[in-house]
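Service request form, structural biology core

Requester: graduate student, group of Dr. S.
Request type: structure prediction, single chain
Budget code: on file
Notes: please return the result as structure tokens.

Sequence provided:
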Amino acid sequence: MKYRVPLELETERLFLRQFQEEDWLGLHKYYSDAEATRYTVGKAFTEGETWRIMCSMIGHWQVRGYGPYAVLEKSTGQILGPVGFWYPNDWPAPEVKWALASEYWGQGFASEAARKVQSIGRAYLPEISLISFIHSDNQPSLKLAERLGAVLEKEVLFRGGIWKIYRHPKE
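Core staff response, request fulfilled:
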């Protein structure tokens, strides 16, 4: 598989790279947090479920040539969560996703990582019109999409709820 985007990215405070086997426990901070996962997967995951979702993110790179990055805080080396490209077979379009453990909310990490991913998408995937696909009750993510310059395109019924499709700018 030829990867379509860089395998590693860096921002002022963050390092983004593909997930590695030892990352699952750090990733479990996000997936075991019922509040953090309320609008994404809808429940707290077991350790086994976290390991399997991490493997699906690694596999996403193999199938699509791009995928979610593991976000590490440079100063601590801690895994904050996944941010990157996501396009499961039931999604309306490829998206820029972000999902951080709640202890990292409100510190600008999601915005910093998502802006970097946006710029990489524009540079390396110019033929793809990226979205963010967000549950309508997830106010923090809706606000972040708007801060990133994404524009509400439409609402759709998905998995029993109303989800909003925000289209990211090409420039």
